[in-house]
Specification:
The complex is a heterodimer of chains A (154) and B (107). Chain A is of the alpha+beta class. Chain A is built from five helices and five strands, in the order βααββααββα. Chain A is 40% helix and 26% strand. In chain A, a hairpin with a 4-residue loop joins strand 2 and strand 3. The relative contact order of chain A is 0.19. In chain B, the strands form two sheets. In chain B, strands 1-2-4-6-7 form a five-stranded mixed beta sheet. Classes of the chains: A alpha+beta (154), B alpha/beta (107). The interface between A and B is medium-sized, with 25 and 21 residues.
Chain lengths: 154, 107
């Protein structure tokens, strides 16, 4: 089974939870485990938050989230903004990188996305916007079984 | 958010979701509590925290700095697996103790 969705919403903090709920409702079709679902929601939350506070600098705009999957259960999610873009993507993806705006940012957003998903791609053009693409292969219960086996082996 | 003292430590119960949207309110409530300089040890009971992203890391680190500056400590307990995964990924487990049991106290 293949499926695709697209959601456009205002770049408002209260829509971070909205985006998490929507991606969870879409991803549940792939029968992810609870940890996999938590990973997806956390990664999406990071990407959407980045779009709101860095892409649009809290001044509003439209965030577009698309997601799709196919027979191989590879979930692909894209978060797009038409904001200010990222001048140095490599630097922005380093752990603890922060814009230093004094708002207690942890600088862990991209690190979290990279850890919780199988692949993270960032396409950004300064002055035009940013697209963050997240990919995760959903193993479901088979993945849990594999983790238990690895734990037993030590 | 519910607050109650236990011996030297104050336990703060944080429930719901801690993200960029809710972080300012949680931060403000914790900072209001820390205006009382007699409070030096704080335990965050996260049993009912169902979601946290990196915005929560910033909140925890900021409060840790404040408590450390007065010779105190911050610890957490009752983390759900998804919250604990982020907690450990960010290295918070190296600076914030993980307490167990229902009673507040230093980790």
């Amino acid at each position: 089974m293949e499926n695709r969705m697209e959601l456009r919403f205002d770049a408002l903090p209260q829509n971070e939870a909205f985006a998490r709920v929507v991606i969870a409702a879409f991803a549940v079709q792939l029968c992810p485990t609870l940890p996999e679902m938590a990973d997806i929601k956390t990664a999406v939350s990071e990407a959407v938050t980045n779009a709101i506070i860095h892409g649009y600098r809290g001044e509003g705009g439209t965030v577009t989230m698309t997601a799709d999957f196919g027979e191989r259960k590879m979930l692909t999610i894209s978060i797009h903004d038409d904001g200010c873009g990222i001048r140095d993507v490599e630097a922005a993806m380093q752990p603890f990188y922060s814009t230093g705006d004094g708002a207690e940012r942890s600088g862990m957003g991209f690190c979290v996305m990279q850890t919780f998903m199988d692949a993270v791609e960032v396409d950004s053009v300064p002055g035009e916007g940013t697209t963050v693409t997240l990919r995760k292969y959903i193993l479901g219960e088979a993945g849990l079984h594999r983790e238990r086996m690895l734990d037993e082996i030590g | 958010m519910t607050v109650w003292p236990y011996q030297e430590a104050v336990t703060v119960v944080i429930g719901g979701e801690l993200d960029h949207c809710s972080a300012p309110q949680v931060r403000q409530q914790l900072d209001d509590l820390l205006l009382d300089e007699s409070i030096v040890h704080v335990v965050l009971d996260l049993e009912n925290l169902t979601f946290m992203d990196s915005s929560g890391i910033g909140v925890l680190l900021g409060r840790l700095r404040k408590l450390a500056a007065r010779g105190g400590s911050l610890s957490v307990k009752g983390m759900q697996p998804s919250v604990e995964k982020l907690f450990r990924l960010s290295g918070l487990d190296r600076v914030i103790g993980i307490a167990d049991g229902r009673k507040g106290g230093r980790a």
